[in-house]
Amino acid sequence: MIAAVTTVTLLIALAPQAADKTTLNEELWDAARAGDVARVTQALDRGADINAGNRYIPTPLYYDGLLYTCDSNGVLTAYDAKTGARVYRARVGGGGAFAASPIAADGKLYLSSEDGDIFVARAGRQYEELAKNSMKEVIMSTPAISDGLMIVRTLGHVYGIGERK
Predict the structure, then answer these.
(1) What does the angle CA 156 – CA 158 – CA 161 come to, to the nearest 5 degrees?
(2) Angle at CA of residue 68, ends 21 and 153, nearest 5°
(3) CA 38/CA 29 separation, integer angstroms
């Protein structure tokens, strides 16, 4: 049985790129926060910048009050989910190509690069890179986490990473 959707939540995080677009982007943010799809459409039609940056593949991640986006070039940006204000912007592991979406568990963010590295950063209001784990193969897909196990698909293998129970 398929349930009908009765409520739609519109979530948009904005990072104004130019002073002349700031007011228009603020209008877009206000319309999105109010759930006013017509006003969102009008702001977009007038040139509001919803796609600032280069986030055309990785999906945003909401975790513990912050919205994280990772650009395809490895720039991680955190936004306050309540206000939309940018909290920080940092380059993951010195840069690279990122197609996989960020994931989170146990207070940590996991960001997989196309070069085959999985970067671990502390979740929170300041960027702190904790580790770099090389899988030695291209990673294009987003890892999955379940019950203490991270499942990673590389170009040629599928790995289950976790502690033995």
Answers:
(1) 135
(2) 130
(3) 13
41-62: average pLDDT: 68
Statement to judge: residues 118 and 57 lie in one domain: yes
Dump strand ranges (E) for 58-157.
Answer: 61-63, 66-70, 75-80, 86-91, 103-105, 108-112, 117-122, 129-134, 144-146, 149-153
Same-domain check for residues 32 and 64: no
Query: pTM for the complete prediction?
Result: 0.70
User: Do 4 and 70 share a domain, yes or no?
Assistant: no
CA distance 78 to 109: 11
Overall domain count for the chain: 2
Helix (H, G, I), strand (E, B) or coil at 102: coil
- Considering the domain architecture, whether residues 134 and 153 belong to the same structural domain is answered as yes
Whether pLDDT at 116 is above 50: yes
Full domain range(s) for residue 82: 53-161
